[in-house]
Amino acid sequence: MKKEVFGNGITNIHVNGKDISVADTPNGFQMERHMKREFPVVVAGKGNYLHLSDGRKILDATSGAAVSCLGHGDQRVIDAITRQLTSGTPYLCSSYWSSDVAQELCKELIAGTDKKMSRVYLSGSGSEAMEAALKLSRQYFFEKDKASPRVNFIAREGSYHGNTIGALGVSGHLARRAPYEPFLMNVHQVSACYAYRQRHDGESDESFVARKADELEAKFQELGPETVIAFICEPVVGAALGCVPYVPGYLRAMREVCHRHGALLILDEVMSGMGRCGTLHVWQDEGIAPDLQTIAKGLGGGYQPIAAVLISEKVMKALYNGSGAFVHGQTYQGMPVQAAAALEVQRINRKDNLIENVRVQGALLEKTLKELLGDHPNVGDIRGKGLFWGLEFVRDKATKEPFDPKLQVAQQVHDTAISEPFNMTMYPGTGTMDGVRGDHIILAPTYISTAEDIKHIANTAAAAVNQVFAKLSAAS
Ligand code: PMP
């Protein structure tokens, strides 16, 4: 491992010939900026806008980190939270109490899965939900056979499942893993489902998906199929690659491989789920169901920190028939105030038909982005689903060669967009796959966005992108 330290104190690490910058993570940048106190200060939020201490009004085109699906300051959610607070029970010890709101929320969530999932485990963040899902999946086999040889997880390159040790262990985000490698689980990886960089010339969806299924099958055979606990993936990759959707048929094919070997399928819909991609759960579009699923961001819409694991009947049965308990638990789980917020967010989604709006406005966002940026020489790919769209930037469109990491192109686009005259958020990221480091940005507008908002977002994004690349080309 070779290290290279840039002037700004950011360290570049070379692992097995791959070039990984610790600053590839938004956190890397944040740390540096926090130290310099460079962050703009938000004093209020209303609808799609954030109001800053310097008087500026910023259009939140990313719902924060794809979280604030209802926008900011929705009075109905504020009222639901206030009611719960004034009832005197924002918190209850979940070891011996439940609450009406937590029970209602769980019922609402189960109903939203068309009864494909049967139980809900509430937690406080996506990482915690992923930890719980990993433990549940192992416990599923342990309950059936205390000497179960199932000890291996298969996850994917270019993935992100959280920052805690277990969740990071199954993540394929090289930059976020790099400093902590010695502590991480021994997880086996297959490639992501990343059509832009992996599809062969003229390759159909069917053959692309068949190739991925063969690869997963080969990984099972290499490890011994009887040793695999689960295959884990994000149906639409968020932070790690920038809104890379599954190729149609992929989730079904992965489901089949898992079935064949009696392994579980864990879908991480922390970022892509809860309506963000145009169906409540992404898997509903593929006509399959996972054994375990994590959800978070759009669940509470940012009004409270809340996440959950949705658990299938199959996994629940093994627990009931075994020890009858999940050996896990956290102080701040299922807090009534969290549940009240999430319940109201989900009811509003349903009552206001917002997921239908995600589909309609998502189609408009796709069309407008492609019209405005499809021919841009440095926009290699425009991909996504629902209101979850990514732009991948390349130095050379023909070869798909990425930019020099030192240029921090995605960060430059973000910095430009958030400044005058654009005043709009664009979520930057840098994924590292097969040693290729790609710059991308994510757009994830709120579910309440109108056609007017979407056109404004696409126009502003295009203007910010044009300005950054005009400057870069003038400087080169
Ligand atoms: N999984 C995915 C797919 C995510 O996008 C994230 C957060 N970006 C996480 C897990 C972790 O969630 P949290 O930050 O709430 O711990």
TrEMBL record:
Transmembrane segments: none
Listed cofactors: pyridoxal 5'-phosphate
Keyword flag Plastid: no
Signal peptide, first to last residue: none
SUPFAM superfamilies for this protein: PLP-dependent transferases
GO-annotated molecular function: pyridoxal phosphate binding; transaminase activity
Keywords: Pyridoxal phosphate, Transferase
Superkingdom assignment: Eukaryota
GO cellular component: cytosol
InterPro entries in alphabetical order: Aminotrans_3, PyrdxlP-dep_Trfase, PyrdxlP-dep_Trfase_major, PyrdxlP-dep_Trfase_small
Stored PANTHER family: AMINOTRANSFERASE, AMINOTRANSFERASE CLASS-III
Annotated family: Belongs to the class-III pyridoxal-phosphate-dependent aminotransferase family.
Protein name as catalogued: PLP-dependent transferase
Species the sequence originates in: Glarea lozoyensis (strain ATCC 20868 / MF5171)
Taxonomic lineage of the native organism: Eukaryota, Fungi, Dikarya, Ascomycota, Pezizomycotina
